[in-house]
Amino acid sequence: MTGAQMRKHSLSIRGHRTSITLEDAFMEALRQMAAERGLALAALVAEIDAAQETPGNLSSALRLAVLDWALQGKARPDPD
Predict the structure, then answer these.
(1) What sequence ranges are listed for the domain Ribbon-helix-helix (predicted)?
(2) Torsion (CA) 27, 10, 18, 41 in degrees, nearest 10
(3) Mean pLDDT on 34-49
(4) 11 burial type by CB count under 10 A (0-12 exposed, 13-18 middle, 19+ buried)
């Protein structure tokens, strides 16, 4: 399955270092989302984190944000 490799990524959101574990495909989609909005990846992650109704698993919140983005038709297929 393409994009199934899990990787740990470290970043700083709102001045605090954190790490997320995501499949490569979700990480690439987050990068696309950030680029489309003219945001740094960390800024997008901070926005998604702040929007969580119940603070919890950030990696899960990021996957749900990517899913929502994809379902809205904003995801573009990889040209490869």
Answers:
(1) 7-69
(2) -50
(3) 95
(4) middle
CB 69 within 8 A of CB 25: no
* pTM to 2 decimal places: 0.82
Question: Which residue type sits at 15?
Answer: G
DSSP string across 2-62: TT--EEEEEEEETTEEEEEEEEHHHHHHHHHHHHHHT--HHHHHHHHHHH-SS---HHHHH
Structure confidence at residue 4 (pLDDT): 74
In terms of phi and psi (left: phi > 0; alpha: psi -120 to 50; beta: otherwise), the region of 3 is left
The domains of the chain are located at 6-71
